[in-house]
Amino acid sequence: MGFAETFKALSDPVRRDILVLLKQGSLSAGEIGSHFDMTGATISYHLNILKKADLIFENRQKNFIYYELNVSVVEEVMLWLAELKGGNEHEA
Amino acid sequence: MGFAETFKALSDPVRRDILVLLKQGSLSAGEIGSHFDMTGATISYHLNILKKADLIFENRQKNFIYYELNVSVVEEVMLWLAELKGGNEHEA
DNA sequence: CAGGTATTTAGAAAAAATTCTAAATACCTC
DNA sequence: GAGGTATTTAGAATTTTTTCTAAATACCTG
Prior knowledge:
Two copies of one chain form a homodimer.
Chain A: H1 3-10, H2 13-23, E1 27-28, H3 29-33, H4 40-52, E2 56-61, E3 64-69, H5 71-86
Antiparallel strand pairs in A: 1-3, 2-3
Chain B binds a DNA duplex through α3 and α4.
C-alpha cells in the first residue's frame, strides 16, 4: 500500500515485464506465464507481489483469473518521482 | 545503466530517503550518514548503489565527497512509467 | 459428483541484498 | 612526513527474495 511495496514490486525485471504485457489489456495467469520460462507457481508469486502493491488487480471469470494493470498507482509513483525532481515544494 | 539497476536502487527505503535529502542540495557522505542510524560503511554501500544506477553523482572537494541528485535519470524513470500507463505507442 | 483445467499455497533450497566490524585508502593540515 | 578526519573496501553474519516441486483449492462441464 505504500511506496515501499510499490517500488519493491517494480524492482524485479519479471514483474516489470508482466506489467508491460498487461499494458495491452488483461491476461489470465496462464497466458502471462506462457511468456516466461518459469513455473506457474513462480508466476503466481510475482502476481501476488504486484497485487499487494496495487499495481494490478484481478478479475475472475469462469475458472480463469484475469489480471489488469492499475494505472492509478503508476501515476502515484510518477508523482513521487516528479516531486523528487521538482524539489522545494515545502518551502516558505 | 539500465532500468533494472535504477528500479532496484529505488526499491530500498534508505536509498529513497537519501534521494529525498539530496533534493534540497548536495551533501557529503558524512552529512547523509548523520540522518540515519547506520554505520558509515552501510551508507557508503547505499551511495554506491545509487551511483551505479546514475541516480546520484559525486563531487570531490578537499577531503569530502559531496553527492548530488541526478535529475535526468529520475526523468527517464518517469518516462518509462508514462509509457507503461500510456499504452499503445507502437501501434499502426 | 467425477474428472479436468487453472491457479495458488506450503515448504525447502538457492541466490541476492543488507548490515556490521575492522582495516584500508585518500587527502588535508601542521 | 605525522597525525587526523572522511570515506570506502573486505569479509562475514543475517535477512530477504526468488525459484522450484508437490500438494491443495477453486471452479467448470458432462
